[in-house]
Amino acid sequence: MNADAASGVVLDKVAFSYGEAEMLFDVAVPQGRITAIMGPSGSGKSTLLNLVAGFERPSSGRILIGGADVTGAPPARRPVSMVFQENNMFAHLSVADNVGLGRSPALRLDASDRAAVAEALRRTGLAGKDKRLPRELSGGERQRVALARVLVRDRPVLLLDEPFASLGPALRDEMLDLVADLQQERGMTVLFVTHQPEDARRVGQAMVFIEDGAVSASGAMDDFFSNNAPEAFQRYIGGQANIDRSR
Ligand SMILES: Nc1ncnc2c1ncn2[C@@H]1O[C@H](COP(=O)(O)OP(=O)(O)OP(=O)(O)O)[C@@H](O)[C@H]1O
C-alpha cells in the first residue's frame, strides 16, 4: 500500500451482512483524489459508502480514515460528508439554513459561520437564492445546496452516492466539473458512486470496481480505460458499445 492510499480511506477486511450473503471489502482509496466506485446493481456500492460514513457497522475488520481507526466512531465523529441522490434538504428550511446546518446542527450561527455560508453559496452558483425553499429550486440547484453544505462542513472526505443520476447530461457534466473544482481547491478525498463510465472517467483518477459484495478490481482510472482493463470491468461495460477508450 503506498503512502497516499494509507492516508486516504482504508477498508481493512471489512465484513458486513444484511442477513443474506456476506460482503467483504478490502481496499485502500487514495488520499486527495477522486475515486469512482462502480459495479452492477446490488453489488454493494452504497453499502461501502455507508460503512465509511458510519451508518452501518462492520461485523469484523477496521475502517481507517487518514490513518485513524474510526471503526467504532459514530457518523458525526467521522471526518466525512455525504451527498445522496435525493433528499439532501429539509423542506421547511431556506437554502441558507440548509447550508448552515453543515456548520451547526442547531443553526446557532455566528458572523463567521454566516460568512462561510454566503461564500459557499457564491462558490456553488447559488448567490441570491439563499432565502428560497427547496421546492423553489431545480434538481440541479438542490444538489448545489448539498455541495455548499459540504463546503461549510469542511471535512476531508466526501462521499457521493450517485448525486447527479437524475440530472440531464449537460447539467450532470456541469455538476461533475464543479465537484472536480471543489475537490482540487480543498484537496478532499472523494468516493463517488456512479453507473456511468463516462462520468467516472471525466472526474476520477482512480477506480474501485465491486461485484457480489467484494472489490474485484481497483487501480488508476487510465488503466480501466486501456486495452489492459481488468477483465471484470471489461465484462461489465462490454454491453455499453459507446465507451471511447482513446484519450
Ligand atoms: N437496508 C437494507 N436491508 C437489507 N438489505 C439491503 C439493505 N440495503 C441494501 N441491501 C442489500 O444489500 C446488497 C447491496 O446493496 P447496495 O445498495 O449496497 O448495492 P448498490 O451496489 O449500491 O446497488 P445500486 O447500484 O442498485 O444502487 C443488495 O443485495 C441489497 O438488496
TrEMBL record:
InterPro entries: AAA+_ATPase, ABC_SmlMolc_Importer, ABC_transporter-like_ATP-bd, ABC_transporter-like_CS, P-loop_NTPase, Thiamine_ABC_ThiQ
Domain of life: Bacteria
Molecular function in Gene Ontology: ATP binding; ATP hydrolysis activity; ATPase-coupled transmembrane transporter activity
GO cellular component: membrane
Keyword annotations: ATP-binding, Cell inner membrane, Cell membrane, Membrane, Nucleotide-binding, Translocase, Transport
Pfam families tied to this protein: ABC_tran (PF00005)
Gene Ontology biological-process annotations: thiamine transmembrane transport
Protein name in the entry: Thiamine ABC transporter ATP-binding protein
Domain ABC transporter: 9-237
Family: Belongs to the ABC transporter superfamily.
